[in-house]
Amino acid sequence: MVGWARAKVTLALDVLGPAADGFHPVDIVLHRIPLGDHVRLAPASVERLAMDGSPMGPDNLCRRALDVVREVVGELPPVDLSVRKRIPVGAGLGGGSADAAFVLGWAARRHPDRREALRAAAIRLGMDVPFLLLEREAARATGRGERLEPLPALPRGWLVLAYPGWPLSTAAVYAAYDRIGSPDPPRAGAVVDALRRGVLPSELGNQLEAAAWAVAPALADFRRRLERAGAPRRRTTLTGSGSTYVVLFDDPDAARALAERLAADQVPWVRCLAMGEAGGRAGKGADG
C-alpha cells in the first residue's frame, strides 16, 4: 500500500477544563489538508522500518502504531514501512499522527473484522489519530479527541500555512495553559455552525495560543509578522499545540499574495492551499 498520510489543521480549539488523568478535555474543529507524508507499507520477509531513510526509533508513532496493530489483530507478518516526511515535526499539523493513522487504516483493510477495535485503540497514539483515521474531511472532536462528529468540509476557500522553523512541545504548551489559562473566548461552536451552513467561518481561534506564546515568546512576534504581511487577524489561528499559523481566505489572490510575501520574507515553510470547491490543490511555498 502506497499513499499520502494527509495532515490536518485545527480551525478552532477550546480547552474545556483542567487536566484529568493528565489529559485535557477539548472541543476542536479539525480539517484535513491536501498535504502529507509519503508512506509505503507492505508485508515483507524481514521487517524494515525507515523514516527518511533512517531506522525508526522506539518512540516513533508509526512503530507504536504497529505495536497497537499487533496487540489488536494478533500475529502480523514482518512489514516494510517507509515514510518520507513532508510535514514539519512539532508544527501542529499532525504529521506523525497521520502516519500512525495510515498504519491503522492499512491494518483495518487487511482485518475488517477488527476495524472498530483499531478505531477504539487509535486514541492511545494521540489526540489527532482518531480523526485522521476517520474517512471524512472535517469533524468536531470532543473529550480527549476520541468523540467525533463528522462535519461538512470547508466550502470554496484558501488556507495559507506559515511555520516559523521550530517546533513546540505539546506537553509544555498544556503545562503552560494550566498555569495561565486563556484570555480568548471559545470559538468551536461558531466554526461548527458556519460549516453546517456551508459558509466560511468569520473567525478562527485557539485557546492554547497564549500558552504557546508563554513557551515560545518569539511565536507572538511571528504572528505580528504575519499580520503586518496581510494576514487578517480574525481569520488567523495557531493550529493544535504546534507553531504553525493557519490563515483563511475567501480571495485566492489575497491568499497567494500573502504566501508570496512570507516566502520573500524568508519564512522557512509556507504553503497556499485551495480547499473545498476551489479544488484542494497544494500551492508552492518557501521550500517548494
Question: Would you write up a description of this structure?
Answer:
The protein has 288 residues and is of the alpha+beta class. It folds into 2 domains: 2-150, Ribosomal Protein S5, domain 2, CATH 3.30.230; 157-278, GHMP kinase, C-terminal domain (Alpha-Beta Plaits, 2-Layer Sandwich). It is 32% helix and 27% strand. The chain contains 9 helices and 12 strands. Strands 1, 2, 3, 4, 5, 6, 7 and 9 form an 8-stranded mixed beta sheet that branches. Helix 1 (61-73) runs parallel beside helix 2 and helix 5 packs across helix 7. The longest helix is centred in the middle third of the chain and has 16 residues, at 95-110. It is globular. The two termini are 26 Å apart. The model is unreliable at 280-288 (pLDDT under 50).
